[in-house]
TrEMBL record:
Region Disordered, residue ranges: 1-29, 63-115
GO MF: DNA binding; DNA-binding transcription factor activity, RNA polymerase II-specific; zinc ion binding
Residue stretches of biased makeup (Low complexity): 1-16
Keyword Nuclease applies: no
PROSITE patterns xrefs: ZN2_CY6_FUNGAL_1, ZN2_CY6_FUNGAL_2
Lineage: Eukaryota, Fungi, Dikarya, Ascomycota, Pezizomycotina
Keywords: Metal-binding, Nucleus
Short name of any one Pfam family annotated for the protein: Fungal_trans
The name this protein goes by in its record: Fungal-specific transcription factor domain-containing protein
Cellular component, GO annotation: nucleus
Organism, as annotated: Cercophora newfieldiana
Length: 690
């Protein structure tokens, strides 16, 4: 959108432009591409094309007429500011943009105020200030709320450099303001940036392009347009760990890019060392860019770390991301960015707690973020890269939103079934047996079914566009992992006292889940495999085999045990032939080998000491009923399999219904009828039946 000042001389064709605004000279107008992206159109001296068109090697055209200016109610006191190309507030004379525009660490562009009487947009942010950081003051801290209210009568905001220590953004919501200059390692920023850029030179632009083609659309926590604009000017405009994280994550697709793959790959280990050192420095001056860097580093191949996840959660709480910022006195675009990052932290914490068997740091009663919506994403289909092998932007936005909803359901199941305090579970099983357990978890299964029914067509596995990558796989994988959390606990809770029909029903559904999960992997197309799969995917994939190990370990006959052994061998081979050039599959194979290498499946488990009866009783005991935070360190090999199997369950092409729902809705008397219909109920359109 045009943010330049109107010229005092209209262009020759001004009369043809609708509305009463005059068309500005070409030098002051955004080109057609920048107008569609709603981003600032900047040119370097003596250049015919803007920096964005130069970066993408596209023609800079000016064919579209300017649109009518819109009121920007978010900044009534800062008419000169511009965010994502939004026009100035009506009633103030528009001002010409300059190349001296400042940008924040998270990728939001802004203009310097024309005079000291008008504060720049940076002074209104909490997490994006270039020289100041703000830390949330909690209600139980040493700062008394009543005293802060008195201070705020004189100081409405602070920037850490004007003598004001506090900033109030809403009633009872105050932040402590400090200058970045007074923090540890603040003098290392330029040196770190130089070292990071030197490590990848001259492949930096190629890596940035690769990142925004393959990763960003499926994990949209940056602002693409402004990131590219900043990068075209100088790499020194970034937070060091964020720049390094983008490079490192893109390097996971190095062989995928034709141009990059013809060169030697940069030293990722050296770059990672610099990134982690830089991240250690920026946590002392927390910014939203610090959260972005941590989250991206966690997504890279081999980057999953529960310790780093815990640090990212802590940084988010320092920034107040756990609070609802809807009514805060901050720009609307920062509210949207905060919501996206808050939910990204929530998902990282919950799924990390699940796959690592650790207690979650994010508590629902203290993390009170509103739901994220499409309005919180700055990009749309207009920002999509047309280059071959790119990922769809619109699909990525929907994926992110639906994953947040799924994570809420998973977190509920995790809290109920994997909490170290199993008193409630034990009481239910003791009084009502497996049927009582099915009733207990039924509401979560119903929520899963509703979530699956609400899934848009764009997110189904068979929705693959020509020469486009499709990241829907990790969303579906996460769905079936959530199912297995519930189903695995049911399998482990079966005892010889369980009615035969009900026991066969549960085990039959478990067998079908394994077969469909294996079929899902075999049906993955190159467009799925080469796309972005988030941090939990390798362990989730490995748990298909581990889940089969649980069914093998609890087999009632030698023939049944042999069936599962062969299935697992076939599954491992299926992964092995798909692992070349697919990092998450290769990592899954390594996880499998490490978790099951000491188990000899050539020997049937039937008849071994503690086989069916002992294992089932262990599953309902106080010490090891669930693979929660406390028992991850003490599992036997068979119990370890049961712990991990939960994560990689039933993966189909679409997730409309599943046997687990039927298991929870039927009693033992209905089991035979259900089992006869199982195959029909289990099939989902879009996946191969083979």
């Amino acid at each position: 959108m045009d943010n330049a000042s109107e010229s005092s001389h209209s262009s020759p064709d001004a009369a043809s432009v609708q509305t009463q605004t005059r068309k500005a000279p070409r030098a002051d107008r955004p080109c057609d591409i920048c107008r569609k992206r709603k981003s600032r159109c900047a040119k370097e001296p003596d250049q015919e094309r803007c920096v964005l068109c130069t970066f993408h090697n596209r023609e800079c055209t000016y064919n579209d007429a300017p649109q009518p200016r819109r009121k920007r109610a978010d900044f009534p006191d800062d008419g000169a500011a511009s965010v994502d190309g939004v026009a100035e507030v009506e009633g103030r004379p528009p001002r010409k943009k300059t190349r001296g525009t400042q940008t924040d660490d998270a990728g939001i562009s802004l203009d310097q105020a024309p005079s000291s009487s008008v504060r720049s947009l940076l002074d209104r942010t909490l997490g994006l200030h270039r020289t100041t950081h703000f830390k949330y003051i909690g209600p139980s801290s040493l700062h008394e709320e009543r005293l802060l209210d008195l201070i705020h009568r004189f100081y409405e905001s602070g920037n850490g450099e004007d003598g004001c220590k506090f900033r109030s953004v809403a009633d009872s919501t105050t932040f402590l303001s400090k200058s970045d200059r007074h923090t540890l390692f603040s003098g290392d920023v330029d040196g770190d940036l130089d070292a990071i850029e030197h490590a990848v030179r001259p492949h930096g632009p190629g890596l940035v392009d690769l990142y925004f083609r393959t990763v960003h659309p499926s994990y949209p926590i940056l602002h693409k347009g402004v990131f590219l604009e900043k990068y075209a000017r100088s790499y020194r405009e970034f937070s060091p760990p964020l720049l390094a994280a983008v490079y490192l994550l893109a390097m996971d697709w190095w062989e995928y890019d034709r141009e990059l793959s013809s060169h030697k790959k940069p030293d990722a280990e050296s770059l990672l060392r610099t990134a982690m050192k830089a991240l250690t420095g920026v946590i002392h001056r927390p910014k939203l860019s610090s959260v972005q860097a941590g989250l991206l580093l966690l997504q890279r191949s081999g980057g999953d770390s529960w310790v780093l996840t815990s640090q990212v959660v802590a940084i988010g709480e320092e920034l107040g991301l756990h609070l609802d910022c809807t009514t805060w006195n901050i720009p609307e675009w920062e509210k949207g960015l905060r919501r996206r990052l808050a939910w990204a932290i929530f998902m990282q914490d919950k799924w990390g707690a699940l796959i690592h068997g650790r207690p979650s740091h994010v508590i629902a009663s203290t993390w009170q973020m509103p739901r994220v919506s499409l309005a919180d994403f700055p990009e749309s289909a207009a920002d999509e890269d047309d280059k071959e092998g790119s990922t769809e932007v619109e699909k990525g936005r929907l994926l992110f939103i639906h994953l947040t909803k799924l994570t809420q359901i998973m977190a509920q199941a995790l809290e109920l079934l994997y909490n170290p305090d199993q008193t409630r579970i034990q009481e239910v099983i003791a009084t009502s047996g497996i049927q009582g357990l099915l009733e207990l978890v039924k509401p979560m299964a119903v929520k899963l079914k509703e979530w699956a029914n609400d899934m848009p067509q764009d997110l189904r596995m068979d929705d693959v566009k020509t020469r486009k990558l499709c990241s829907n796989g990790y969303l579906h994988l996460s769905y079936f992992v959530t199912e297995i959390i519930i189903h695995r606990h049911i399998i482990r809770s079966l005892t010889p006292e369980t009615p035969h029909a009900l026991r066969e029903l549960c085990r039959g559904a478990g067998k079908a889940r394994l077969e469909r999960a294996i079929n899902f992997v075999e049906a993955l197309r190159p467009e799925h495999l080469q796309a972005f799969w988030w941090f939990a995917s390798p362990k989730s994939l490995a748990f298909i085999r581990t889940y089969g190990g649980l069914l093998w370990a609890t087999s009632s006959t030698d023939a049944e045990a042999e069936f599962y052994r062969r299935k697992l061998e076939d599954f491992r081979w299926s992964l092995k032939v798909r692992a070349k050039g697919v990092s998450f599959v290769a990592a899954a194979l390594q996880e499998m080998d490490e978790s099951l290498q000491d188990i000899d499946m050539t020997q049937s488990p039937v008849g071994r000491a503690g086989h069916m009866l002992g294992f089932s009783h262990m599953s309902v005991s106080a010490s090891s009923i669930l693979g929660g935070a406390s028992d991850a360190e003490t599992q036997t090999p068979v119990q370890e399999m049961a712990l991990h199997t939960i994560y990689h369950g039933h993966q189909f092409d679409s997730v409309e219904t599943s046997p687990s729902f039927n298991v929870l809705e039927l009693d033992a008397a209905s089991s035979h009828e259900y089992l006869s219909d199982m195959d029909q109920n289990f099939f989902f359109p879009g996946l191969s039946q083979s």
